[in-house]
């Protein structure tokens, strides 16, 4: 799996180990490194034999592996325990088996932000503002959020009982059958004057297909200009970003990567292009795969970027499944925009720099208040 927050194909790496006469050959550097492992085992035995309370050796191993990888000093290169690796796979997979709700904390309790459209929770009548009091008869509060989420997930077709408190209605038990939940990464609508709007929240396994459905729907409704909103999109699967770019840009290189050995890998687009005015909305939360799409649109001169400077993540990670429920994410290359720019640590400055007022940066704003969206509409109108 390759990430930019980047992700694409699963990768499994096996290194051949040379043996002579039944003995393993190692370099001096490897020998010194192995001596450190002897020290680690010695420290583990000291702690195990002398620590006052019971020790979870699995947690010790996870901690040691985390520390070893973190020692590289790259915050994107990490060892992931089972819980962290599962969370990554859910995020990039774009789906999970559960009841389909967004939740948050309110007044020390777990509150339903919204049910996902078509989910078991929505079909059963669970609503925004409901409080989750129990899961399978076990009391849960905001401090039990992760536990509650874990209990509500499970295999497709299995059942879970959720006790809900609704203001003015009291408590009610819901027995729900878990289903495959697709996490929406695309929202779309037709704005005034037949200007299409597509919001991409992240790039998961379903994003490109969902984007194409939204694009075709808007085209069928007579769209004559498109706004793609990438604000606060932290990235995701590389191939999803390049598949979307392929529909917008025309023929050429969308992005290329170079690894530690100087090997270059190109992602290219065919002659298909949008053939209508295009604006991308970006900000400091626009990162990784979102910056790949933004950089390609900029370099192809296929559209106008509006907003504030993007995050500046130009590194590629490979995810390695260790086959025991854990994994490692390693930075393996840098990516470059079609013009040859690596935006790591620099970001992309939009064509039109326009900051939201400070009062609007920490709250959800309406379309009427969104000056960046208004500017995008203003830019598109004369070009149609």
TrEMBL record:
Record-linked PROSITE patterns: PDZ (PS50106)
Record keywords, A-Z: Hydrolase, Protease, Serine protease
Domain of life of the organism encoding this protein: Bacteria
InterPro entries in alphabetical order: ClpP/crotonase-like_dom_sf (IPR029045), CtpA/B_N (IPR055210), PDZ (IPR001478), PDZ_6 (IPR041489), PDZ_sf (IPR036034), Peptidase_S41A (IPR004447), Tail-specific_protease (IPR005151)
Keyword tRNA processing: no
Gene3D superfamilies recorded: 2-enoyl-CoA Hydratase, Chain A, domain 1, 2.30.42.10, 3.30.750.44
GO MF entries: endopeptidase activity; serine-type peptidase activity
GO cellular component: outer membrane-bounded periplasmic space
Pfam family, one: PDZ_6
PDZ domain sequence ranges: 84-153
GO biological process: proteolysis; signal transduction
Sequence similarity: Belongs to the peptidase S41A family.
NCBIfam families: prc
Protein name: Peptidase S41
Source species of the chain: Fervidicella metallireducens AeB
